């Protein structure tokens, strides 16, 4: 009976050719093809499960007809279809196109900032170099994270998400987060020492101490991020992971410990900075007194640097809030998220878990977008707030403009000379 209905509708399409547009005919033909295949899958039923969402059907949705009988929680097939399309759209635009655009802008700005900082670093005295070394370390961390992000995107587009790509993604985020966190903690302590103990800062604190501090920060960040990546990948792809990690005895405790550690390190930067500012304002050496009675120019410069650091700390706080939120949400849905990586990836698995995929795509998209925006804003703040970097950039811009004007004048002169010769 179902096939007869299809044949009748096919006949109607032929006779109604005069008043049905080509677009409508194509849509109806696609609809009938899907219905015919559905009749082969569920011959006992005469109801099309996607009849209420005909306009949402795509050419690639044919494979989801066989998944409809597997729905167990009472969800409507049309609802799952729409949710799955939402997840795919988020993945296409907000996890591929938008991050690439933001990352290109962030990479260019961070490279410009890194070059400017290297030039100023080589020309300045030791007192400036001590804190500049930590800023250089932060810039290198940002550039490395952005370059590794391209590796993840290439691997994802070539082979899809699997244990290896997820491991690299977690490694990038953890390394960038931990290295920048350590850098801000060191900068807070360094600038506080320069303001309150200028003699110790000049005489006892050497450049090699700062190099050792940066090296320790990177060593801790690399080792910790490798551990986070290797074990964190098992949370999403336990079957393909080379490390055996059961849910109750490994995955859940690991996720809780990692979340607590990252929240502690995130809070440490904010609490330490505001605690030191509070000490400067309310402590034995009042903040205004320091500004009024500072005996050396380096002490006043350190005080200004401490004030400028507040903008970086605020950017750090805003940029990493989504990471903390994603971790908390992931902990609450850990069992479901872990089930997505179990077994083979099939169309029915994607279709039946469409709601969960939407949550994952939205959280990952928001976290990536805000994280990259913070990496765009951070070098801009650093250049605009540092007079040395700002003046150097303006000098380069003026020289570049002058060269462009000179080349344009030379081109115009050559054109004029050729016309005169003719």
Automatic annotation (TrEMBL):
Q: How does it sit in the membrane?
A: Multi-pass membrane protein
Q: Which GO terms describe its molecular function?
A: G protein-coupled receptor activity
Name its cellular compartments.
Answer: Cell membrane
Transmembrane parts of this sequence: 93-121, 133-156, 168-195, 216-236, 256-278, 309-331, 362-384
Q: Cross-referenced Pfam families, in alphabetical order?
A: 7tm_1
CDD domains cross-referenced by the UniProt entry: 7tm_classA_rhodopsin-like
Record keywords? Cell membrane, G-protein coupled receptor, Membrane, Receptor, Transducer, Transmembrane, Transmembrane helix
Q: Which residues form the G-protein coupled receptors family 1 profile domain?
A: 111-382
Q: What is its main location?
A: membrane
One cellular component term (GO) for this entry is: plasma membrane
**What is the protein's name according to its record?**
G-protein coupled receptors family 1 profile domain-containing protein
Q: Which organism is it from?
A: Mesorhabditis belari
